[in-house]
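=== RUN LOG ===
request id: a7f3
mode: sequence -> structure
chains: 1
length: 78
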Amino acid sequence: SGRPEDAAEIVEPYASGDFKNDDTLMARINLSLIRWKQGRREGAISILEVLHARGYQSSVTHGNLGFFYIEMGTYPDY
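=== RESULT ===
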């Protein structure tokens, strides 16, 4: 609908669950996109970096995080 505030209200409760739950992981990925659309860019990146640090890595998280880094003009020191 193009209303990230409304989307955040729906997704946030699901994103606070257990990291071992696939629905929680997908909610966190979606929440990172919502944060990006809200202009909360650092928050969007932080969500995906936490997922990576906890061992959850997928083509979606890699792609989104890479795009976020490119758009921000910052790159991690790996």
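=== NOTES ===
The chain has a mean pLDDT of 91.
The helical segments are 4-15, 22-37, 41-53, 59-72.
=== END ===
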